[in-house]
Write a structure and sequence with these properties.
The protein is an alpha/beta fold. Helix content is 43%, strand content 22%. It has ten helices and eleven strands. The longest helix has 28 residues, at 61-88. It binds 2-phosphoglycolic acid. 2-phosphoglycolic acid is lined by residues 100-103, 129-130, 147-148, 164, 195, 199-201.
Length: 300
C-alpha cells in the first residue's frame, strides 16, 4: 500500500468526527484538501473507506480497519515523540553508574535522594571491585564510575566527592578494643582478613604495610566482599580493614569495634571518574552535579 502518514492523520480526524468539514477545521485545511487526501488513501487501499450520506460520513468495514490502524500509528507516533523528547531531559534518560563495593554503602543513600527528584530516570547500578571498574572505564561501558584510588595510565576526569577512611575492625571481645593509640606491633599475632586481588581496599592495605618495613603482614585468609569480611571479623576469625562507611550498622549495635591503631584511619578520597572527552548524558551530568553537592550525612 502506497499510503502516507499525512493521509492517515487526515483520515483519522475525519473518521473520528465523521465529517470532512470538522476534520478540515481541526487540521487547519480546506475541506477539498481533506477530501482529496482521503480519496488518494482510498485508491491506494483499493477499496471504499466511507459512504457519504448528506454531510455525514459513515465508515465501511474497510474504513473501520483503516481507522484502527491510523489510531495505532498515531499512538505509536505520540509514544515515540515522547521517548525522543525524554531523551533530551533528565527524567527520560538512563543513568548508568558503576561503583566500588565500598562506595555502594553510600551511593544507595544518594541515589534515593536523587530519584525523589527524578522519578522518570532509569538507573542501572553495577557494584564491583576496582579492577573491574578500570576495565569498564577502558571499554567505555558505563557513564560514571565512583571509586577510590584511580589508575594513572588512563586519560580520566577525576573529581573527589567524599573522604573514605579505612579502619581496622575487631570483634567486641578483642583485648585491644579499649586501648588508645595502639602500635602496629601489638597486632602482629592477629590474622588480617584480606579482600581479593583487584580490590582497591586491598591495594591500599598492601601499600600501607609495604611502607611499614618493621611490620610483617600475616594474611592467609582472603574474601571477595566487605560483608564477608565484616561477618568473619564478628565471628572472631581475625581483624579486617574496611571502609568506615561500610560498618555504620555494626558499629551502632556494637557488633564490631574500630581499633584505635596509630596511623589509622588511612584516609583516601572517593572520586567521580569518567573518560576525558566522554559526552555525559543529561541524566549522568545531573547526577554528577548532585553527588558533588550532596551534603547528606552517613553518620559513621
Ligand atoms: P574495592 O573498593 O575494595 O571494592 O575495590 C575500593 C574503593 O573504594 O575504590
Amino acid at each position: 500500500m502506497n499510503i502516507t502518514f499525512r493521509q492517515l492523520q487526515i483520515f483519522r480526524s475525519a473518521a473520528t468526527h465523521l465529517s470532512f468539514t470538522d476534520a478540515a477545521a481541526e487540521l487547519f485545511l480546506t475541506q477539498p484538501a481533506v477530501s482529496i487526501q482521503i480519496k488518494q488513501l482510498e485508491s491506494a487501499v483499493g477499496i471504499p473507506l466511507y459512504e457519504k450520506l448528506g454531510k455525514k460520513i459513515h465508515l465501511t468495514e474497510a474504513g473501520e480497519i483503516m481507522f484502527r490502524f491510523s489510531c495505532d500509528i498515531h499512538r505509536q507516533f505520540i509514544e515515540t515523540e515522547k521517548d525522543l523528547e525524554n531523551l533530551k531531559g533528565v527524567d527520560g534518560g538512563l543513568l548508568q553508574i558503576s561503583v566500588a563495593t565500598t562506595v555502594n554503602y553510600y551511593v544507595a543513600q544518594v541515589l534515593s535522594k536523587f530519584y525523589q527528584n527524578h522519578k522518570g530516570v532509569r538507573i542501572s547500578l553495577d557494584v564491583t571491585n576496582r579492577a573491574r571498574l578500570i576495565d569498564k572505564l577502558e571499554n567505555n561501558e558505563t557513564d560514571l564510575v565512583l571509586m577510590g584510588p584511580v589508575p594513572n595510565d588512563l586519560d580520566l576526569i577525576v573529581e573527589p566527592f567524599m573522604e573514605n577512611p579505612l579502619v581496622i575492625i575487631a570483634p567486641p571481645n578483642h583485648p585491644l578494643v579499649d586501648e588508645e593509640q595502639i602500635p602496629l606491633r601489638k597486632l602482629k599475632d592477629d590474622t588480617l582478613l584480606m579482600r581479593e586481588v583487584g580490590s582497591g581496599t586491598r591495594m591500599e592495605m598492601e601499600r600501607f604495610f609495604l611502607e611499614k618495613k618493621n611490620f610483617k603482614l600475616i594474611s592467609t585468609i582472603e574474601m571477595n566482599s566487605n560483608e564477608a569480611i565484616k561477618q568473619s571479623v564478628e565471628a572472631g576469625l581475625g581483624l579486617g580493614i574496611v571502609s568506615m562507611h561500610t560498618i555504620k550498622l555494626e558499629k551502632e549495635v556494637g557488633r564490631l569495634k574500630v581499633l584505635d591503631v596509630i596511623n589509622f584511619p588511612i584516609i583516601q578520597d572517593w572520586n567521580i571518574v569518567y573518560r576525558k572527552g566522554k559526552r555525559l548524558s543529561l541524566a549522568a551530568e545531573t547526577f554528577r552535579e548532585f553527588i558533588l553537592n550532596y551534603r547528606g550525612d552517613i553518620n559513621t
